[in-house]
Amino acid sequence: LMDQAAEGRDAHERGIREERLRVARDMHDDIGAKLLTLLHIDDPQRQKPLLREAMTQLRSIVRGLAGQAQQFDDFMADLRHVSMERAQAAGVALHWQAELDPPPALSARQQYQLRAALNEALSNALRHAQARNVRVDWQLAGGALAVTLADDGAGMPAASTPGLGLDSIRTRMQEIGGTAVWEQPVAGGTSVRLGLALA
Fold it and tell me: Which of 11, 34, 165, 178 could staple 173 via S-S, CB 3.0–4.6 A?
């Protein structure tokens, strides 16, 4: 019993350390990078999108620290609202479609990483794709959640292009047992499909 208690304590402490490292990484890589960029931009119109993204990521980090999952309807409503605001500010039409019945039960960690991955994918569409329309589709099929973000922009440049955050998106999805797959439809533009198997 003492050994089991010690193992449980060690696992708990490891979890806390990993969470602290994740928060530190996100603060440095996401918010820190945007604030550093803002220092070198004098044009207020170019500053606003970066400020909005930094605020969105800060909210996401704070919710992740709380360690409690939102009700799924609240999670979706919040994510949709923020995404719509960002798209409107960029002059892009955002079409949001969700077919989720019953709504999936996501943990706080799954919500955090899925939100961050989708925000990064949306940033790519708004800042790099020169798109006029972005569509976000949520679907449940075969015990898995699939979120597809597709734009009608210029198509995805080389995967090694700096600033696209593709590795970050893949890593976030892998950390919750998910996947991220990019495609370039024949009709043009780029789509990314975030997949997550549900318990």
Answer: 178
Which pTM was predicted? 0.75
Q: What strands, in cross-sheet order, belong to the sheet with 190-197? A: 93-99, 133-141, 144-151, 190-197, 178-183
Give the β-pairing of 93-99 and 133-141: parallel
For residue 186, give both structure tokens.
């024949």
DSSP structural state of residue 40: T
Q: Report the relative pairing of strands 133-141 and 178-183 from DSSP bridges.
A: unpaired
The identity of residue 164, as a single letter, is L
Q: How far apart are CA 77 and CA 138, in angstroms?
A: 13
Whether the CB-CB separation of 59 and 53 falls below 8 Å is answered with no
What dihedral angle (degrees, nearest 10) is formed by the CA atoms of 113, 114, 115, 119?
100
- Rounded distance, CA 70 to CA 150, Å? 26
| Omega before residue 157 within 30° of 0, cis | no
Mean pLDDT of the chain: 82
Percent share of the chain, pLDDT over 90? 31
Handedness of CA 128, 121, 77, 44 (dihedral sign): negative
Measure the CA–CA gap between 199 and 188, rounded to whole angstroms: 35
How many angstroms separate the Cα of 64 from the Cα of each of 117, 122, 185? Answer: 14, 20, 34
pLDDT in tens, 8-31: 777 767 766 776 777 777 776 667
